[in-house]
Amino acid sequence: MTKKISKPLAKVVAASVCGPMHHYKKMPCQDYFKHSTRGKNFVAVVSDGAGSAKYGKIGARVVCETLVDLLANCSFENIKRRIVSSIEVARAKLMRHRLNKTKSSDGLIDFSATVVGAVCNRQGKGIFFHIGDGAGIALSGDDYEQFIASKPENGNFLCETFFYTMDDWKDSLRFTTFEKADTIFLMSDGLTNFAFSPDYSKIETKFIAPINAFLQKEASRPKALRALNNTLNTPMAKRLNSDDKTLLWAKI
Predict the structure, then answer these.
(1) Which pLDDT does position 168 carry in this prediction?
(2) pLDDT value for 13
């Protein structure tokens, strides 16, 4: 019997570019992203490894890969509980990691990373999950006035945010539900000031709308990826924000 192959849930184009500050310091990009389109659910995750953390990029990679693996085929029922348990698995992996000398939660500070992700099922239900800065946007059609956003959360001090590696990470985990969205954007902190008005009440359509329109129409994946990389790496983008930049676009 021939096994039926499920139709992909989404068309995805995503890119990460190294920020000028990391490039100057000869550091790699600390952002990471991963997605799945062929399971029961569409899952996408973006994580920003803290620049101050010795192994921030590893923390970012582990949480992205773990959450996508565990959520792609899980039931959407009790999805919040499944997301929490998946983050706990990612933390457990880091506790056992060869670079964690303490082999306990005390060593997780070296892997500090934010996380913003989305899960959407084939019935049109979706949810953002979010710890720290970065952002998510869910759109329906080309109506940029009506959108659902998972906004950044920062601390009381400049450049302070929250990480899934913190002991009290559950206090910072936020969920935002949406339905019947056909376009998803996920981004790291290096792009939030491009995508939103300063108070996050509006989408900056001069940034989001052209990207959305181009990626919807471009059938060539290499051309779409090259264009997205070029957009994130323009001299103006580097000048306006020196951080690493990741953007994941998905057409559901």
Answers:
(1) 97
(2) 98
